[in-house]
Write a structure and sequence with these properties.
Layout (H helix, E strand, L loop, with lengths): L7 H19 L7 H20 L4 H9 L1 H18 L6 H12 L3 H4 L6 H12 L1 H14 L3 H24 L5 H4 L14 H12 L9 H12 L5 H20 L5 H24 L13
Helix pairs in contact: 1-2, 1-9, 2-3, 4-9, 7-11, 7-13, 8-9, 8-12, 9-12, 9-14, 12-13, 12-14
Length: 293
Amino acid sequence: MPKVDWWPVDKVVIAYLGAVTAIELLNWSRLPNPWERLITHLAGAAIVALAAHYPANRAARLIHYWYPLPYVSYCYKEMGILIPSLGRPNADAALAHIDFAFWGANPTVWLERFNSPLLAEALEIIYAGFVPAILLVAFLLWLKQSFREFRYYAFLIALGFLLSYAGYFLVPARGPRFFLRHLQTYELHGAWLFHWLSSTLDHIESAQWDCFPSGHTEMTILAWWGSRAVSSTLFRVMFAYTGGVIFATVYLRYHYTVDVLAGAILASILILTVPRVYRALGGDTSGDQSRDR
């Protein structure tokens, strides 16, 4: 029987599922459809284990590379159920107070002086493109057959997402577009795609408490850093894109500036520490890529 091939991302994902399962078991009676969540967690862990146990199987190998994508998506949605079900306290007032104490104003309100439908349109497109931008780096690494770099990038991105979800759980907040709406003097408007994009994001995120830290800030910084493995050109393009995303988070009223700062700090910590963590979990940052093909 071939040696079990546990990847660092597997260990992080299973640890996360285990931690969330423990929280759910301790609060079983407070959750809607708790059996559904438990079965989903167990099935998810089983799929990871099967992929690790059959590294020579082509289908299992493909799943092993790409399973973090649906997993982090499910975990994001799950937080939208856990936080209100467990009665986590709303941190919007505290975050807004920190912003106001530092700036002497609410940044989203102050930015109203730069009202521009074209600017709002451009920033909404940039903001909505954050997941495709993250996936672009992964797909380009895949097309280059840079499998070792792909595995490292998948680990970095999965860990970044899961840590941001832990932040949502510890500091639940919905953001200034909801909490400070009564202070805004006008609704944002765009030119063409703005309303469709914003309504789509509202549909996806309206039930979420995903403000602190700013996942858009954290994950775009991580994707920018990971794009070095693709090309210097993409690295420069992603740098400019990251700046646009960070500005968009506040201008479009999705985040407080303290969220943005927290996301940037978390991304910086991960960039500095993940290489050591990855190696400690058995990851290879210097081996021959050909063995992963």
